[in-house]
Hints:
CATH class of the largest domain: Alpha Beta
Number of strands: 7
Bound molecules: nicotinamide-adenine-dinucleotide, prephenic acid
Distance between the termini: 29 Å
Radius of gyration: 21 Å
Largest sheet: 5 strands, mixed
CATH superfamily of the largest domain: NAD(P)-binding Rossmann-like Domain
Amino acid sequence: MIGVGLIGGSLALSIKKNENVHIVGADINIEEMRVAMAHAVIDEQADDVKKEAEMADYIILATPVEETANWIHVLSKWTLQQNVVITDVGSTKVAVMETAFLLKEKGVTFIGGHPMAGSHQSGASNARADLFYEARYMLTPFEDENPQKIDALMHLLAPTQAHFVFIDAITHDQVTGVISHLPHVIATSLVRQVKGYSAKNTLITEMAAGGFRDLTRIASSSPHMWRDILKQNRYTLLALLDDWMKEMEQVKNLLEKGDSHELFHYFSDAKQFRDSLHV
Ligand SMILES: NC(=O)c1ccc[n+]([C@@H]2O[C@H](COP(=O)([O-])OP(=O)(O)OC[C@H]3O[C@@H](n4cnc5c(N)ncnc54)[C@H](O)[C@@H]3O)[C@@H](O)[C@H]2O)c1
Ligand SMILES: O=C(O)C(=O)C[C@]1(C(=O)O)C=C[C@@H](O)C=C1
């Protein structure tokens, strides 16, 4: 397990429910390694990552996505087990799968993965074995991947009790752009706007309640993780932000007109769609 933070740690805790699993962890943050060992998230800490990776049956990359791409470069230079399956948990897939081509060219299996559950909290101390229970778990194997390797990975991940969904990397990045990355940008920019007002009036933060909390919780997420996600999915985000600005223009127009019927429809249309969603 390379990266023993929230997602790597949660996956480790859940994978441990399989028989005959021994999880060796590696992390650039020594404190995270200490926490992961102290909470029995991993069985052993890697003193020599190369040596451990070359002995591993599975390698899971659970680092921020730019680091994941770097690790794929590194792994492509090592002599891994012939049957090794490498996967990741990153929130973007196009850049990761493009880099993973380096492994494919060497006959090494890489199957992209992305569990659709998480938190604004980071680190192994927040890891939970049930984090992925009933969540969607997207997999992006190369088109001609050996089905036995995919089955082996799904077997390893079965204790997560997540529902696997196969998807191509481009569609993945468009879909997550819409339902995860754009909402993060909106929450973050809203918090920044409120921060500006709060400098002039302390009542603003004092009066903040449930509505503000629910809409902005995710702005407390890891800046490192989100910087990397936005870098890798920036073209999708640029198009989505154009649409978002058009949406805001529409709200401005509605307010300028002040038409009760149109304003009511704006809210009722959104409520109807929101009420129909499973989340
Ligand atoms: N947090 C979420 O809600 C969520 C959900 C699904 C997927 N993801 C994805 O999971 C991945 C990990 O996110 P997280 O929430 O667990 O973050 P996290 O900060 O809790 O954990 C990431 C860990 O990676 C370590 N790390 C960073 N660079 C490294 C490197 N070069 N080598 C080794 N270790 C390194 C960090 O020290 C940290 O312990 C990201 O790619 C993210 O996009 C996150
Ligand atoms: O619940 C949260 O805090 C999350 O942000 C989780 C969340 C999301 O739903 O957008 C964040 C990033 C992921 O790649 C998957 C899930």
